[in-house]
Design goal:
By secondary structure, this protein is an alpha+beta fold. It has two domains: 111 residues, no CATH class; 220 residues, 2-Layer Sandwich (Pseudouridine synthase), CATH 3.30.2350. Helix content is 14%, strand content 29%. The chain is elongated, with a radius of gyration of 24 Å. The N terminus is likely disordered.
Length: 342
């Protein structure tokens, strides 16, 4: 999806961000989105071309869906369409539904974006160098937003905290907390990506996680089940399409509620690898309902209403080691992992 953060005339509009009930909320805001049209639209009036050939993004974060010809005429009348004839115009201008589509046209539509609320907890900086920044990401705060330049994500929140433009170097799921490494430039971002990517020839990272599972494991375990994705879940895939994945699990402590703290070391970094492998071992993360957890245990400190609304699970990236980049970052433990906590 190709969108531009600034208005067509180059002027940014301020975002209104607030904190309420432990959630960070951003009021819907306008952006200008590029409208890509196929060659079949050339020569048609803009409203006809858009009604017949343009498909809205597959997301519910925008206030614009399928429109008929009349609807696009109205959008143009409302001043929400911009057009630039690349061969002879240097700037965008207001467009109407009657403008004829030409091969080199660039067209924008003004839409309003609604970003889902996120955790109000702020990332804490663990490492700050001229090349990298490492933070402890709170559970419930996404690494990247619903679109480029989003406010409610690690990059947007860090920018608002005064850390400038940073580039996320690897993935960490929304409900997971812990170490996240960012580059200060696209070049440094790519170095982290290569070091942390499963199967890449330059991969050299070592990752250590903590999880709280139920029922407890009887002893150390290794799961080497190949994984594939199906409807947003990592599932066993013994076919040629399945990706190799190996996860080592070491039991640490059993809590009074019957849950167990375990140390987890994934050899690869497949999507949802730890969550799926713990489920396949018969000891899923206790509050990870997607992979067999029973939900809230009743004693967990992160089971407040606000936390549950933003999908928190008991999985924490405790340590990231990237020897090739000279990085060894450790994050403080979350409350649910503290032994001896009531």
């Amino acid at each position: 999806m190709n969108v531009t953060h600034a208005a067509a005339n180059g002027v940014d509009e301020p975002r209104q961000v607030s904190v309420r009930d432990r959630l960070r909320i951003c009021k819907p805001y306008p952006i200008w989105q590029h409208l890509a049209l196929p060659d079949a639209a050339i020569g048609l009036p803009l409203a006809v071309a858009l009604a017949q050939h343009w498909k809205p993004p597959t997301t519910n974060h925008f206030d614009l869906g399928y429109l008929d010809e009349h609807g696009w005429h109205q959008v143009g009348s409302d001043g929400r369409l911009q057009l630039r004839r690349q061969e002879r115009e240097s700037a965008y201008r207001s467009a109407t539904g009657e403008d004829e589509v030409r091969r080199t046209d660039q067209c924008l539509v003004r839409v309003f974006v609604t970003e889902p609320p996120v955790s109000a907890e702020l990332p804490s900086v663990l490492l700050d160098t001229d090349r990298f920044v490492a933070v402890c990401k709170p559970a419930g705060l996404p690494v990247t937003g619903v679109l480029k330049h989003a406010e409610l994500c690690v990059e947007g929140v860090l920018a608002a905290m005064g850390h400038g433009k940073l580039y996320v170097g690897h993935r960490l799921d929304l409900p997971v907390s812990g170490v996240l490494i960012l580059g200060r430039s696209p070049k440094q971002q790519q170095r982290v990506l290569r070091a942390c990517s499963a199967g890449h020839e330059e991969a050299s990272s070592r990752k250590t996680y903590l999880a709280r599972v139920a029922p407890p494991l009887e002893g150390p375990a290794v799961c080497a089940v190949p994984l594939g994705m199906h409807r947003g879940r990592a599932v066993r895939d013994d076919t040629a399409k399945g990706k190799a994945a190996q996860t080592a699990v070491q039991p640490l402590h059993v809590f009074p509620d019957g849950t167990q703290l375990v140390e987890v070391r994934p050899l690869q970094g497949r999507r949802h690898q730890i969550r799926a492998h713990l489920g396949l071992l018969g000891s899923p993360i206790a509050n990870d309902q997607l992979y067999g957890g029973t939900g809230c245990t009743g004693e967990g400190p992160d089971n407040a209403k606000g936390s549950q609304a933003i999908k928190i699970i008991w999985l924490h990236a405790m340590r990231y080691e990237v020897p090739s980049l000279g990085l060894d970052v450790v994050a403080p433990l979350p409350a649910w992992a503290l032994i001896g906590r009531p």
